[in-house]
Amino acid sequence: MPVKLLCDIAEVSKSGYYKWLENSDEEECDHEDYLLIKEIFEKGKSKFGWRMIQMRLKSDKKIIMNHKKIIRIKKKYQLITKIRQVNPYRAIMKKTQEHRTFDNLLSRDFKRSVPYKTFYTDITYLPFNHRMAYFSAVKDIASHEIVGWNVSPHIGMGLVMKTIEKMKNNKNLLLSLFNNIMMHSDQGFHYTNPDYIKAVSGLGMIQSMSRKGNCIDNAPMESFFGHLKDDVDYKDCKTFEELRLLIEEYVGYYNNERNQWDIKKMTPVQYRNHLLTTA
């Protein structure tokens, strides 16, 4: 039957009918896209923003979706991203007279384009089952790759010394590559310790340190630690060994599977290889 006749019977205008039809098609399309976005959002434990969702749609579903549409659908269906809370506490430890500090050679220059030239190291705390674990990591600033790490139930010097040992044994890092690599850190007790200084200089690396109170200098590692604490349910671990295995799995995932917006939407290992081939 003619549309005009049907509209007269229903006592609606033709323009109103076509507007309803247009919105009906859009609603159906939105619902299909919503299901795709919701699947990825829930896999990310409600912590993915539009950038991560857009990257995952492309890498996992081979779907390219405009970021404005993702934002609109997230808002429409109330897919609210959990925002990481900034940790206001940082450990302050007194140094003895034998400890040494070094000049800040990094000077907040985080835009490095050559892998294996500038590393950053730091320590964070992982509370679990009414206990505390300590996680130490070394990050390549250029590629964002974690090149060495260690987790321990103790915060003594063994924590960072084992980190250096694991970094040295990294199969992607030949011993000759360590020469003249900058190793940046804060002025924490561990990094001014003579044993640590000896281990770093013994590899031919050059130490660099942030000045006291410059929290902005910690940005490269705070970003990684923040993502780890967002993505890993470490507080649910019952034993230290369970926590250690969880951290080991996450470091592998972070390096090899977790796409990052500011490194051309690649994973750290992909971006490291990209930089090495274009250098």
Please write the string of helix (H) and strand (E) elements.
Answer: HHHHEEEHEHEHHH
Question: Structural class, from helix and strand content?
Answer: alpha/beta
CATH C-level category of the largest domain: Alpha Beta
Q: Major sheet: order of its strands? A: 3-2-1-4-5
**Major sheet description:** 5 strands, mixed
CATH superfamily descriptor of the largest domain: Ribonuclease H-like superfamily/Ribonuclease H
**Count of DSSP helices?**
9
Tell me the overall shape: elongated
Indicate the CATH topology of the largest domain.
Nucleotidyltransferase, domain 5
Q: Can you give the mean pLDDT?
A: 86
Poorly predicted segments: none
Radius of gyration (Å): 25 Å
Strand percentage lies at: 5-15%
Could you give the count of β-strands?
A: 5
Distance between the termini: 68 Å
* CATH architecture descriptor text of the largest domain: 2-Layer Sandwich
Number of domains: 2
Helical coverage, percent range: 40-55%
